[in-house]
Amino acid sequence: MTARRSPRIVVIGAGIAGITTAHVLQEAGFTDFTVYEKGDDVGGVWHWNHYPGLTCDVPSQLYQFGFAPKPDWPKIWASGPEIQRYHRDVVERLGLSDRIRLNAEVVSSVFDDATGRWTVTLADGETVDADFVVCATGVLHNPSIPDIPGLHSFAGPVVHTARWDDDVRTSGQRIAVIGTGSTGVQVVSALQPEARELLHFTRTPQWILWAPMSLPQLPFADTVLAASPRLHHALYRGLLWGSGILADIVRKDTWRRRAVQAYARLSLRAQVRDSDLRADLTPDYQPLCKRQVVSGTYYRAITAGNADLVTESITEVRPEGIVTADGRLHEVDVIILATGFRAHDYMRPMTVVGRGGLTIDEAWRDGPRAYRMTAIPGFPNLFTVLGPNSPTGSISLQYTAEKTARYLAQWFDLFRNGEVDRIEVTEEATAEFNAQVAAASETTVWKTGGCDSWYLTESGAVDLWPFDRATLSRMLARPDRSHFRLGADEPLGDSAAL
Ligand code: NAP
């Protein structure tokens, strides 16, 4: 057995997954790790996304790190800036700042078959050697820019919500918003009151659950929760348990699912009286099929005198505005693209080269796939946190990130103790896991609800977690050595066959 050694670990990304990983590694006594973050701040999607009206539709007492509970959220559903402040506070409070290098974009990670180590290269040319690479690079990171003819010819500003430009003037302007997901709905609600005219271009309407999104946290809740960490922990666990109902609803066609779906239909019927507009706003698929949109203000905004829903498809953009299939030119001053993300482009545009020169693009030719969200055959000693099949649609992401990071820490500990060198998941274990995912996905509303969404890969596979939280915790409880090839002496095999 080799002597105790200190693994050098590179973590890529300082969003929810990266902050969690850094905390867990620090807590587990790992001393040689650095988080590289390409942005100039921590927070990941909460740093990059700062469009007007940005809110989180998951209650803040749940949408937080289990290891860093915050008693004094001002509102039940926090705004983007409040969440971003929280991330900064957590990093500082837990002493992680010195571990994180901002403005440090990783452009490539290459595995060396001979040494069993990774060479990580930053955009400025600096290289770092590492025993392990943890990709905490996020899901909703790369903005999806629609390929609309003439978009670049538009005379005014064109801004994607995920890269909002604070200098863009929207007040008193004629605004076009393209996209009807959670983002489009939030940005329309926020900009309509001050706009001269707001046109919402809707390719596919979404079901929108009504909720009072601006409700403050209960009076004195902050004082009570701060005074009693045990009570605060119990509340967090209670919410975590309660959110299990959501996992159940999306996975099984029960009365609970049907009740939520009925509520979505009622939300529309009760708020939109005009039958033509209501017809235009009515989706032709089941509620919950796409990522459910929640809003207390959208229907009010879209029925306001200065707002219009445009359901004709967009054919081109001209310097003065947007042309729709009926030949009409909609003159606008600003175009806002709320068109979402390339959600399956995990780690991209980074180059990742594993064993035998296998690239991540080759390994994922048919779409992203990993073992239990974290390990990829052909890529020894590389892991993802919130990687493929992460439960973006059902279970707390902070919880999942922490479970995954603690799972990884166990592998790193085995390395530290000299019990393992190379850790590479087998193709068989990965295929078995993905077969389980495919089978469990069959009954999910994401698959049966009759819609297309970013939850599905191009091949139609569900890139989400189709199991419950107990299964997630069990699968990540401890490393199953039989699913991995361990040590440098293991036969390397033929990566082309992976
Ligand atoms: P999204 O849900 O992927 O929605 C993108 C929208 O853009 C869809 O309505 C889509 O229409 C439309 N679109 C895309 N390309 C288009 C084109 N060429 N022409 C016309 N329309 C086009 O993106 P998102 O709203 O940014 O949300 C992404 C995810 O971020 C959410 O699902 C959620 O997980 C997260 N999010 C969460 C919150 C929160 O409160 N927690 C807030 C914002 C975002 P089709 O449906 O026809 O494709």
UniProtKB/TrEMBL annotation:
Keyword terms of this UniProt record: FAD, Flavoprotein, Monooxygenase, Oxidoreductase
InterPro entries: FAD-bind_Monooxygenase_sf, FAD/NAD-bd_sf, Flavin_mOase-like
MF-aspect GO terms: flavin adenine dinucleotide binding; N,N-dimethylaniline monooxygenase activity; NADP binding
Pfam families per UniProt: FMO-like
Family: Belongs to the FAD-binding monooxygenase family.
PANTHER family (alphabetical): FAD_NAD(P)-BINDING DOMAIN-CONTAINING PROTEIN-RELATED, L-ORNITHINE N(5)-MONOOXYGENASE-RELATED
Stated name of the protein: Putative flavin-containing monooxygenase
Organism per entry: Gordonia sihwensis NBRC 108236
Taxonomic lineage: Bacteria, Bacillati, Actinomycetota, Actinomycetes, Mycobacteriales
